[in-house]
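Fill in residues.
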């Protein structure tokens, strides 16, 4: 039986279906387009199938192939290079590094933001009624405050520290040692809308929060007002709070009983959960602080302000605070 001889396979040039002129793809793959000569004249290109093999096209395809291969390869450590033994440092030095990397001396200031179509929070300047006009939106006012902080006239403003929370993702030991530095520093949120985004994002770390300040209270009849109840419902997991400061006006100035009932309606689940975790129904009232704007004598609309001394005004504020606290504890079932 005679052996049959198969005809030799025809060699064909490798076909690339990438666009040779796609500078955006080259940039994404790490190819420097400036170093690759452009093919300005297409008259010498053989347009038959599989024969797209001009010198420039072949050189460019090889560069792309090398870039892809290099991107897939893991980075090789240099010779005699060892990772820094961070966990072998003394505990005092590690704590100092955590404090520098995870805390801000001015507190962690958070505002509402949108990232990749998701509602979230991030560091930023809080714009309240003291530094914005009635005819400016909050976003425009933020931009104006940022420009002013970068101008030469406001060099005295302290620079915001750049935090490095990615340090906590190195390993379990570093996370266990440093996570409290991030969440137990003073945290200031723009309003209850930002508070909801912050608490929803941190999940099980809510119990680590100890110092919280809220700079804005939702009003009107829209989603902003509804966020008061939603955010305080998530706040029920923050059972280790040492301070809760509502540094804002809660609606129009009202009588102490009405103010207490508003707080109870919006924060009932937080007050109950905090009281159950700390052994007293009124425990949350003891850590709650309100802006002085919420206290004082209630005047009728259009009535002239009473001409009273500063001492009398302070006494009226103290009386208003005590009545509000007493009414709130009464609503919570305290004896």
């Amino acid at each position: 039986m005679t052996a049959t001889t198969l005809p030799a396979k025809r060699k064909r040039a490798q076909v690339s279906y990438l666009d040779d002129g796609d500078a955006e793809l080259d940039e994404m793959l790490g190819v420097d387009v400036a170093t690759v000569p452009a093919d300005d004249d297409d008259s010498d290109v053989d347009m038959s199938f599989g024969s797209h093999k001009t010198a420039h096209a072949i050189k460019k395809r090889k560069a792309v192939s090398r870039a892809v291969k290099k991107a897939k390869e893991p980075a090789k450590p240099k010779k005699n290079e060892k990772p820094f033994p961070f966990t072998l440092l003394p505990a005092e030095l590690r704590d100092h590094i955590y404090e520098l990397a995870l805390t801000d001396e001015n507190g962690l200031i958070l505002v509402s933001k949108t990232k990749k179509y998701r509602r979230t929070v991030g560091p930023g300047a809080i714009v309240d009624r003291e530094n914005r006009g009635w005819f400016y939106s909050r976003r425009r006012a933020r931009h104006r405050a940022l420009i002013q902080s970068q101008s030469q006239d406001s060099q005295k403003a302290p620079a915001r520290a750049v935090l490095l929370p990615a340090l906590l993702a190195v390993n379990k030991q570093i996370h266990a040692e440093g996570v409290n530095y991030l969440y137990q520093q003073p945290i200031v949120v723009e309003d209850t809308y930002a508070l909801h985004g912050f608490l929803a994002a941190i999940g099980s770390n809510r119990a680590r929060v100890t110092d919280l300040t809220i700079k804005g209270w939702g009003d009107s009849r829209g989603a902003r007002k509804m966020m008061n109840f939603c955010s305080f419902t998530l706040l029920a997991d923050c059972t280790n709070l040492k301070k809760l400061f509502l540094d804002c006006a809660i609606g129009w100035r009202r009588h102490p009983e009405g103010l207490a009932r508003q707080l109870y309606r919006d924060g009932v689940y937080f007050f109950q959960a905090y009281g159950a975790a700390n052994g007293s129904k009124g425990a949350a009232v003891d850590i709650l602080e309100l802006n002085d704007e919420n206290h004082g004598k209630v005047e009728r609309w259009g009535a002239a302000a009473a001409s009273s001394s500063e001492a009398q005004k302070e006494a009226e504020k103290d009386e208003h605070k005590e009545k509000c606290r007493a009414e709130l504890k009464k609503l919570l079932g305290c004896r």
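Residues 256-278 form the longest helix (23 residues).
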